[in-house]
Write a structure and sequence with these properties.
The protein has about 220 residues and is α+β, with helices and mostly antiparallel strands. It folds into 3 domains: about 1-50; about 55-140; about 165-215, no CATH class. Helices cover about 45% and strands about 10% of the residues. β1 (about 1-5) and β2 form a beta hairpin.
Length: about 220
């Protein structure tokens, strides 16, 4: 059952119930403490009580750092995602606890970020936050009523243009690449043009990915 006691100029609610963790929370007024105690006891009896203690103690920065260290490190594109997370955790949005992270705060973060970043970049950061919060809810047992990113509208990204290198452009590229101090530049341009690879794919390409007999790369 619930009990209310005066504790450091506040009213502390203690709810002890068999088979349920101890509930402890402080309020500035006795009426707020009484209301909370009654609502909590009713919800516990119905099996609807949601303990937000851990969500209140865990910041978005804590969540993103743990996600980076436990999840991102095993991904194929770990290096790029770690860079994004390390940049994101410096933003003031990460000072909020998960319990205080609202759709309104996420929307303000999106709008502020869009002033200096491309829509695609903004959307990637929103996705990072959303995935990390979902991981905290579903895998780490941190209770949250909802993911604040779920209903946030993403930025509209421009359609990707199909740009092809013309023969005269290729000739100029290779001509000036020969003058570069990077001795491998001309070779990597040729490979990129032949395979249609992105820069990240080229830099991740290793000798074991290449079949020299079939002249292919996987």
């Amino acid at each position: 059952m619930a009990s209310i006691r005066k504790h450091y100029k506040k009213y502390q609610v203690l709810i002890r119930r068999k088979g349920h963790p101890l509930v402890c929370k402080s309020f500035a007024t006795y009426s707020d403490a009484t209301r909370y105690a009654q609502e909590s006891e009713t919800n516990i009896a119905k099996g609807l009580y949601a303990d937000l203690t851990e969500a209140n103690q865990t910041t978005l920065r804590d969540t993103l750092c743990r996600y980076r260290d436990e999840v991102t490190v095993s991904k194929k594109g770990a290096k790029q995602e770690i860079y994004k997370i390390n940049k994101l955790i410096k933003n003031k949005i990460c000072n909020y606890s998960l319990a205080r992270l609202t759709p309104n705060k996420i929307a303000k973060f999106r709008n502020e970020l869009s002033l200096n970043s491309a829509p695609a970049t903004v959307n990637k950061y929103l996705t990072l936050i959303s995935v990390a919060v979902n991981t905290a809810k579903n895998e780490w047992g941190i209770h949250l009523p909802l993911n604040p990113c779920t209903k946030i509208k993403r930025m509209e990204e421009p359609e990707v243009k199909d740009i092809r290198v013309q023969p005269e452009e290729e000739e100029l590229l290779l001509k000036y690449a020969e003058r570069s101090k990077k001795h491998w530049l001309k070779a990597i341009i040729i490979v990129a043009l032949e395979l249609g690879c992105h820069r990240g794919e080229l830099f991740r390409l290793s000798k074991t990915d290449v079949d020299f007999f079939k002249s292919t790369a996987a």
